[in-house]
Amino acid sequence: MGEIKMYADNLPNMPWQNKPETAIGPVWRYSENPIIGRNPVEGVARIFNSAVVPYEGKFIGVFRAETNNGVPHLYLGRSEDAIHWTFDKERIPFVNENGEPFMPRYAYDPRLIKVEDTYYIIWCTDFYGAALGLAKTTDFKTFVRIDNPFLPFNRNGVLFPRKLNGNFALLSRPSDSGHTPFGDIFISESPDLVYWGKHKHVMTKGHGQWWQSLKIGGGAAPIETSEGWLLFYHGVTGTCNGYVYSMGAAILDINEPSKVKYRSENFILTPEEWYEERGFVANVIFPCATLHDAETGRIAIYYGAADSYVGLAFTTVDEIVAYVKEHHVDNADDATIGII
Ligand code: BMA
User: Fold this and answer.
1) Alpha carbon distance 177, 210 (integer Å)
2) Percent of the chain at pLDDT above 90?
């Protein structure tokens, strides 16, 4: 264990590669990326922007699967090593709270987060346009869809892995119905996942850092550390050739995560490999999950690449926290307008 403590389970069987000497920056890619290639299961052209968790000594995940008619849906995948995945042949068979079948018209960018004994799936759903969908499971057999947390339009819902002051806490990014050329990260709380409130602003886009000048959105579930909540997120810039998605990192106050303690002015991963630069949508790195081991401080980050593949990258809690602190820039716009 290093200097910074992660308050999480030990996960000795998580994927890992040591930092190569050629690595630039605090995060390095898995040498065998992408871990999920094209046409991964019958009827599915691409899998990307997906989330995984440890489960019963192995791994399970909820995957954004672009079906052959171009519509995204959620598929379940299983793995022994969190690198090689086998996918169900059918979409996740959600039911509503009465036990009747429920299938979202489309579903994308899932996060999969365990809070207490329940696993929650949060995705972008069709609710008169893009909005957050929510479902829960305890056994990965029955998936119960519960109420959408917010009105449209919203994306990038990310639950904290434990309740804060007795409430569930959810990051989100209010959006528009299209490709959203704006957006900051907000936080909301709920005692029961039905009634949401205590909305606060967490982090602003841009402000001098061009790689995140247009919008930002939460990525993986925040990791609880002795320095605060470690958040991997995406930041987007606009170019004459379209958007470019990079990965950033920030540390939020442990008791009041609407307060940013540190955020790196630099991206920690930006498209440069072929599977990030070339694909259905070029130049996209879109983190959705981590696996991490409290004992060693190792972190594996799962990210969608070019809306076509899943990539894996590594860091350690010591390395990333040191980097974020060293490259921190104060951003006055992180304070919540209208409150602070
Ligand atoms: C966003 C989402 C993501 C996607 C990204 C780049 O708006 O739709 O799923 O990865 O655009 O296309």
Assistant:
1) 24
2) 95
Sign of CA dihedral 299, 12, 224, 92: positive
CB of residue 286 inside a 6 A radius of ligand 1: yes
Task: Tell me the CA–centroid distance for residue 183 and ligand 1, in Å.
Answer: 13
- Residue whose CA is at the smallest distance from ligand 1 atom 2: 109
Q: 270 near 256, Cβ under 8 Å?
A: no
Q: Kindly report the length of the chain.
A: 340
Instruction: Identify the residue whose C-alpha is closest to ligand 1 atom 1.
Output: 179
Q: Over range 251-263, report the average pLDDT.
A: 97
Q: Which whole-number Å values give the CA distances from 190 to 116, 125, 187, in the listed order?
A: 15, 20, 10
Task: Supply the pTM of this predicted model.
Answer: 0.97
Distance from Cα 43 to the centre of ligand 1, integer Å: 21
The secondary structure of 133-172, three-state, reads: EEEEECCCCCEEEECCCCCCCEEEEEECCCCECCEEEEEE
CB atoms within 10 A of CB 286: 27
pLDDT higher than 70, residue 339:
no
The answer to whether 161 touches 113, Cβ cutoff 8 Å, is: yes
208: number of Cβ within 10 Å: 9
The sign one gets for the Cα dihedral 55, 225, 175, 128 is positive
Block residue for tokens 């909820």: 62
The upper half-sphere exposure of residue 324, i.e. CA atoms within 13 Å in the direction of its Cβ, equals 27
Q: Residues 126, 110, 80, CA angle at the centre, nearest 5°?
A: 145
State the pLDDT at residue 104. 97
Q: Contact at 8 Å (CB) between 144 and 97? A: yes
